[in-house]
């Protein structure tokens, strides 16, 4: 796991045809030396802070992508104002409680990456091979956790007073009377199960794997190549 770059004592400049050699020495903290408690606690806390500030824009983006033309909102600012007027601040956080469970996918990603690298090192000492396999495996685990949670939270994002936006509509009063918090989540989960079965929670799963696995598998070898100079 990379630490803040600490540059070694610089060597004399070596210039050749107007160019300078740049030697990178980035200190790497191995998994076994990491304070796991601090890593998991601070990692989740920092991600949560970012998620709280960005979630309203994720909800607005999702609604803008789903709506027919400009039937409800004419843009980001228009959507922001209309949601606030209709539902208040809580309207910008529909599905947020469910979505927070994806925080653990990030921790699972890093854990899988490090443990897989350690496992692969018993069979190959190639940094490229270890990073390639570990990066792909980490994304596989992370997306397997994230996709079902995203499916449910996105259906919750579509809940609004009046007109139906998504495939499913929760029963009860969206203001909180009758169906609140995880009551809405349970209702959506039941409807997905009835309509599509377990496969309904993995809509877009293959597309996600085809997007994130190659990206992660290629990124990590380049990172370690860069870190090693």
UniProtKB/TrEMBL annotation:
Its main location: membrane. It comes from the Eukaryota. InterPro entries: MCP_dom_sf, MCP_transmembrane, SLC25A44. The chain crosses the membrane at residues 39-60. Pfam families: Mito_carr (PF00153). It is found in: Membrane. One of its GO terms (molecular function) is branched-chain amino acid transmembrane transporter activity. Signal peptide: none annotated. Keywords: Membrane, Transmembrane, Transmembrane helix, Transport. GO terms for biological process: branched-chain amino acid catabolic process. It is a multi-pass membrane protein. Residues 1-21 are annotated as: Disordered. One of its GO terms (cellular component) is mitochondrion. Solcar repeats lie at residues 37-119, 126-229. Belongs to the mitochondrial carrier (TC 2.A.29) family. PANTHER family: SOLUTE CARRIER FAMILY 25 MEMBER 44. This is Solute carrier family 25, member 44. The lineage of its organism: Eukaryota, Metazoa, Chordata, Craniata, Vertebrata.
């Amino acid at each position: 796991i990379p630490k803040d770059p600490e540059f070694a004592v610089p060597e004399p400049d070596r210039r050749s045809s107007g160019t300078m050699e740049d030697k990178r020495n980035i200190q790497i903290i191995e998994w076994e030396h990491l304070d796991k408690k601090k890593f998991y606690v601070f990692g989740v806390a920092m991600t949560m802070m970012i998620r709280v500030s960005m979630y309203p824009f994720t909800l607005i983006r999702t609604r803008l992508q789903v709506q027919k033309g400009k039937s409800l909102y004419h843009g980001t600012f228009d959507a922001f104002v209309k949601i606030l007027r209709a539902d208040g601040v809580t309207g910008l956080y529909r599905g947020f409680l469910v979505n927070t469970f994806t925080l653990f996918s990030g921790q699972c990603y890093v854990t899988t990456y490090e443990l897989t690298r350690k496992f692969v090192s018993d069979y190959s000492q190639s940094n490229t091979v270890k990073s390639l396999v570990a990066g792909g495996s980490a994304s596989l685990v992370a997306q397997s956790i994230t996709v079902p949670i995203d499916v449910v939270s996105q259906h919750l994002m579509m809940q609004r007073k009046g007109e139906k936006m998504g495939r499913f509509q929760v029963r009860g009063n969206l203001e909180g009377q009758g169906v609140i918090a995880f009551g809405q989540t349970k209702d959506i989960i039941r409807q997905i199960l009835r309509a599509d079965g377990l496969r309904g929670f993995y809509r877009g799963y293959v597309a996600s794997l085809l997007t994130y696995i190659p990206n992660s598998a290629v990124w990590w070898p380049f990172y370690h190549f860069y870190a090693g100079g």
